[in-house]
Amino acid sequence: MSYSTADSLPTVTLDDVRGAQKMLTGVARVTAMEGSRYLSRLVGAPVHFKCENLQRTGSFKLRGAYVRIAGLLPEERAAGVVAASAGNHAQGVALASSLLGVRSTVFMPTGAPLPKVAATRHYGAEVRLHGTVVDETLAAAQEYAAETGAVFIHPFDHADIIAGQGTVGLEILEQCPEVRTIVVGIGGGGLAAGIAVAVKSLRPDVRIVGVQAASAAAYPPSLSAGRPVSIENPATMADGIKVGRPGDVPFRIVRELVDEVRTVSEDDLSSALLLCLERAKLVVEPAGASPVAALLSRPEEFEGPVVAVLSGGNVDPLLMQRILRHGMAAGGRYLAVRLRLTDRPGALATLLGVLSVVDANVLDVSHVRTDPRLGLTEAEVELHLETKGPTHCAEVGLALREAGYTVID
To answer: What global pTM score does this model have?
Structure first.
C-alpha cells in the first residue's frame, strides 16, 4: 500500500486490489450473480444481485480479513490476532486465521446471537463475551491487544481490509461488464471503498451508490463536514451497517469515488429482506438487503444495468421472524386490528364469519373481558390477520365497520 504525504493515510490502488484477488484465489468464492426479474421490471432495466451472502462464512468479510492477516510479519502472526465483532467480521477473522495457522481471539457482545457465537467458535477462534454494546467490546479487544501483543484486526479501517473487499468490484466487472450502477450498503465504509477503487479505476463511468439505514447514517453528516464525524446512538435492525463513525481510510475513498450516499427506512429494509426471500429465494440479512431497499424505495432513480451487492446472509432466526412480520406489515400483508364487540355466545364466530367473507386469514385472536374501559357487556378482541396488500387491508376495515364493529386501532 502507498501512503499519502498530505495526511499519512494509506491509499488503496487498483494494483492492491488485484494483488488481493490473487491472494484470495482458492480461499474466497467467486460468488454468483443472479438476475432479479421483479426488480428489473420495477427499475425498467436489468437488475442483478451480487450474492456475497453465499460467500464462505456468509458474508464478504472473509476477503478483507484474510488479506489483512496474510500480510502480517512472521513475528506478528506468532503473537496472534484479536478482533471485536457482533457477527460477520468475527467469523471472517476466525476462518481466515484458521486457514493461515494463526491463533485468533474474538470479543463479542454478551447479547450476540447464539448462532453467530457458535459459528465463530466453529471456525477456530477463542470467543470472549464482553460488554453489552459493540463499543465496550471493541475497548476490551484493544485492551487485550495492548496487554498481549496480539494484532488488532479492524473491521474496515485498514488498507489491506479495503483491498480485500475491493475484489468484489473486480468480480462485478467480470460478471456484468455492461453494468452502469452499483448499489452497496455502507457501515464503516470498507466494502464501498474497496469496490469504488476497483471499479472507478477501470470504469469511471459506472455510478456507485452507497446505502445507509436512516437511523444509523454517519456518512451524510460526515460528507457534509468533510471529515468523519460521530453520531450518537445509531439504532437499526441492520447490525452489519450500524456504525457510529466512518473509518478514516475508507471515508477519504468514499468521499472521492462514491457518487452518492442515500438512506433507507426500517420499513424499506424489512420489505427488501422479504422480497429477497420470497422472490429470489435468498436468505439475506438486513444490512445485505439495504441496496434492495434503495431500489424498492426509488426505482426510477437508477440507471441500468444495476448490480445490488447482497453483502451478507447471517441473520438470527428469531430476528428473521420479527423482520418478516414487520416486512409483511409494511407491505400491507399483515394486519393487527383491535375492536369491541358485544360479549355474548357466538359473537366471535360471527366476527370470524365477516373476516371469512373478505378472505382475511386469521393468525391469532386474543380477548380482553375485564378492563375499566369496557362496558358490562363488552369485550375487546385483538386479531392478527394475513392480508393481500394495502387495498385488501382497507377492504377488511370497511367490512368490519359495515358489520357494526367499533374498530379501535
So the answer is: 0.83
